[in-house]
Amino acid sequence: MTTWTEEEVYLVAGRGREWALQGYLEEAAILFAGLVAAVPGYVYARRSLASIRLQQGRPTEAWPLLDAEAYELRMETLLALGRPRDAEAELAAARGRLEPAIELRWRWRFETAKQGATFGNSPR
What we know:
The chain is an all-alpha fold and 124 residues long. It folds into two domains: 1-67, Alpha Horseshoe (Serine Threonine Protein Phosphatase 5, Tetratricopeptide repeat), CATH 1.25.40; 68-124, no CATH class. 67% of the residues lie in helices and 0% in strands. The protein contains seven helices and no strands. Helix 3 packs parallel to helix 5, helix 5 (71-80) runs antiparallel to helix 6 and helix 6 (84-94) runs antiparallel to helix 7. It starts with 5 loop residues before the first helix and ends in a 10-residue tail after the last helix. The model has no long low-confidence stretch (mean pLDDT 91).
């Protein structure tokens, strides 16, 4: 097995980010999946792949990639999996670790959802 240099990992991650930002999600996912396989502890690659899988509507593939500190991605994934109570529990666990404005946005999102609004990123 060949060991990747830090520079090679960085270059592949950068290309994956560029492709994801340009909307080439499957191509970016392939790069990030390769990075996860080559460097399993590389948190950026794992979170990036999870984010892409979430955008592709594949939350069951996103969930196992997420570490305990990826609070917002974990909440998004739990919502996509239809588990809003678990997502709220994640917010409670993250209390004090998120920026106040982010925490407030999430509390607002959960409250509006309880009132019948959707879990979309913006009100419609």
